[in-house]
Amino acid sequence: MEEVFHVANSLLLILNFYLCLNAGNAASLLLYAAPILTFRRVTKKRSTGKFSCIPYLIALLNCLLYTWYGFPVVSSKWENLPLVTINGLGILFEASFIFIYLRFAPAEQKASFHLCLLTFLLFSVSS
Fold this sequence. Notes:
Elements: H1 2-18, H2 23-33, H3 36-45, H4 54-70, H5 81-104, H6 107-126
Helix pairs in contact: 2-5, 3-5, 4-5
């Protein structure tokens, strides 16, 4: 698992250099990558402890919404390409954090996660 985190850190350095022209994208990338240390601790302990998955779920839904907003279907042509790329990376990060969380979470926390996910999806579809 440490190999995955080493690759992720190397990828962050490369992407940070690539995105340094746009400070907002670099800041967003760092924001999405911030939980890497938390999930390194989760994988070492093989337990989520008292961590909640709700912030990662909300961040994932935020990335999905902004990625949809940046697509040419909603925006004019590809004028929001940086928005799509950074939030696409955010989707990858947040989905991987949620996957790790669900892998090491006890049954009660998994059940509460599924309940929260269902609630968010119901509100998303109804609005």
